[in-house]
Specification:
Elements: H1 4-9, H2 11-19, H3 27-63, H4 69-102, E1 121-124, H5 140-144, E2 148-149, H6 150-157, E3 163-164, H7 167-185, E4 189-192, E5 196-198, H8 199-204, E6 217-218, E7 225-227, H9 231-236, E8 243-245, E9 251-260, E10 279-289, H10 294-308, E11 317-320, E12 346-351, E13 359-363, E14 369-371
Length: 373
């Protein structure tokens, strides 16, 4: 989330930046809750100090052999007032946290204005022309035939699932291996990540609360567990709670995992074949880097991506606009997102397999810290 100190000190700059994403209306609620929260915290701290003094007065009265009934009555009154204010403070803290999480990150100045797809700027990442054929091209489902079985997949699991068979499985594995080999050659460390994570990881990596409807939850897990929609979440949590020495940065990983997405709100979109399924595998580039060098690292990943997916037959491109649906997005691509980097190591990630072009810049996942800032 954004740094509340930035919001307080540069309110109008933040408001203008959020207006580019049509989210400036959220700022007034955040400021009001912040003011209320700070006022309540002051009152709570004062009452706690008074409670301590009241406890001392009771002790002094008893040591002096006096009746401490008056002091005890005053302490009870303080206790009741303090309990009421602490309840209010907890409620306001929770509302403040929710309001802060609802704020999108500030768009980069280079992002084009606009909220619609047609407002996006296209940046070509390949000059390979679209192929022309003398015959009518067939799609992947026609070409694969029985080797991609969506009918049996739907019978087993519902729509948007499929069985892969025979040489399609070998092609799938070979494509993943190709991407991994390329990225290892560029200094990335391969990681097979957990696919079940706690809510803390999804909040810390910027996917909750907005993308909650897209995530599968495990109903009987305690504490709650969720299936990841991208290995970004697990990779962001790799150094959760750790201090990263500045001299070790950047730490570059390529994550391999199965991914699960509900695809809520996409009825009727790309429903043929295996382009928009609920389960898929993906190789993801991810880097923990110094916040002041996060944009440079972001560009580094963008430069690597077409090289790592050079077997892909189509030209590749990214788009840039502040009105991206992702609340954590900045300029870069349809799925770009950035998290606060103040006093934290930044991190960047990009998809390197399955033909996606998702890039992001974010801080280290929940409560990771960097030494030497």
């Amino acid at each position: 989330m954004l740094d509340i100190r930035l919001i307080r000190s540069e309110t109008e700059r933040v408001r203008a930046a959020l207006a580019r994403r049509q989210a400036d209306g959220l700022l007034d609620e955040v400021l009001a809750l912040d003011e209320r929260r700070r006022a309540l915290q002051t009152q709570v701290d004062e009452l706690r100090a008074e409670r301590n003094m009241a406890a001392q007065a009771i002790g002094e009265a008893k040591r002096a052999g006096r009746d401490a009934a008056a002091e005890m009555a005053a302490a009870a009154e303080l206790r009741d007032r303090l309990a009421e204010l602490e309840t209010q403070l907890r409620e306001v803290d929770a509302a403040f946290e929710s309001a802060m999480l609802a704020l999108p990150n500030l768009p980069d100045p280079s992002a084009a204005d606009g909220m619609l797809e047609e407002d996006a700027q296209l940046h070509a990442m390949s000059d390979r022309p679209q192929p022309e054929f003398e015959w009518e091209p067939r799609d992947h489902l026609d070409l694969a035939g029985a080797l991609i079985d969506v009918e049996r997949g739907a019978r087993l699991s519902g729509s948007r699932f499929a069985y892969l068979l025979g040489d399609i499985v070998r092609l799938h594995v070979a494509t993943v291996q190709y991407a991994l080999d390329k990225l290892v050659g560029k200094g990335f460390t391969p990681v097979m990540t957990p696919v079940l994570v706690r809510e803390e990881a999804l909040v810390g990596s910027g996917f909750f609360p907005e993308a909650r409807e897209q995530v599968y939850a495990v109903a009987n897990a305690d504490p709650g567990l969720f299936l990841i929609g991208t290995s970004e979440v697990s990779l962001a949590g790799l150094h959760m709670g750790e201090i990263l020495p500045e001299e070790d940065l950047p730490l570059r990983y390529c994550g391999l995992s199965s991914c699960f997405r509900r695809e809520a709100g996409t009825a009727g979109k790309d429903t043929r074949g295996i382009f928009r399924t609920h389960q898929f595998d993906k190789v993801e580039m991810f880097s923990f880097c110094h916040p002041e060098r996060s944009w440079e690292e972001h560009e580094h990943l963008l430069a690597i991506e077409p090289w790592a997916t050079s077997a892909h037959p189509r030209p590749r491109s990214t788009t840039s606009r502040p009105g991206c649906r992702d609340r954590a997005a900045t300029a870069s691509s349809p799925r770009a997102r950035t998290r606060p980097t103040s006093r934290r190591a930044g991190s960047t990630c990009a998809t390197a397999a399955r033909g996606a072009c998702a890039t992001c810049t974010r801080s280290t996942a929940p409560r990771s810290r960097r030494r030497g800032h």
